[in-house]
Amino acid sequence: MHYIEIVIRPLSDWMTPWQADTLFGHLAWSIRYEEGEQALKEWFDAYDEGGEPPIILSDGFVGRWLPRPMLPPVRRPDKPLLELEEAIEAKKRKSLRWIDRDALIQGRYDDLDSLSDKGEPRESVVHHNVISRYSHRSLNEDGLYAVEQYGLPEEETTISIYARVKDDRELERLKFHMERAGLVGFGKRKSVGMGRFEVEEYIARDAWFNRPDADAHMWLSHGVPAPHDPVHGCYRIDTKYGKLGDGLATSGNPFKRPFTRLVPGSVFTGSNAHRNWSGRMLQNLAPAHPEVVQYAFALTLPLTVGEDRLAQMDFRFAGGF
């Protein structure tokens, strides 16, 4: 078993969020093209419920930032009120969604100085011309349209993806197809250069995930719990409106049915340390292609949150994004 950090350096802006299911889709298409249809089928079969998943991916995170864990507040003993300036600063930081990963690994979940908004990608709106098919010039009316794209914020140069890999064979497969995906591009508009990246390095992170003292675990991916996954915790949800990719993107109906999923930062009780993953594959989401499966597994990071917080984490819902 390997736990690794894949450090990538974007070579262009991107239009699709770095989410685990999209990353998995790029790996799957690369396996289909490079290894063949039968190899892809055997790979998917290994994800059947009850089996040992070959590769579990996290979402991609900017630099050293990880999602702030969704935890109930610690009950504090009576103490003097904060000074006004301290209270204002604490309120500002309370809404920040990102935490320095060193603080997270060390269990400093309430360290205000380790919270930031620097984990958010830089957003920009780019305008393009609409070209007339008759004159081959831009239209005089309604001749512009806008698209959103993303890049790295200032001072950040990399994105990190974390992975649980079953064995050496799957590790080599992951490296090969991840590097191939960087050449092709990630997400929307990769045909015009969006989403290109290069893999900078692979870093072993076994110590982060082998935590015998853990009493909870945090999701590092968007995903859907399996029936046997823990249910006591703090979490947020969103709805995914997916589309088919690559070779199926131009099929008659490329749209998938929407589904609800948990977001990174969701925390559940129980260490989950015997495997460090949750979630499952979803089926029957693509009406035009019933054979298509939806990756909804999540890599989970062990945490030690303490008895006080564990006692409060009973079917808590932290609200939606």
UniProtKB/TrEMBL annotation:
One Gene Ontology biological process: defense response to virus
Tagged with keyword RNA-binding: yes
UniProt-listed InterPro entries: Csm4
GO molecular function: RNA binding
Organism domain of life: Bacteria
Key words, A-Z: Antiviral defense, RNA-binding
Family the UniProt entry places it in: Belongs to the CRISPR-associated Csm4 family.
Name assigned to this protein: CRISPR system Cms protein Csm4
Species in which this protein is naturally found: Bacillus thermozeamaize
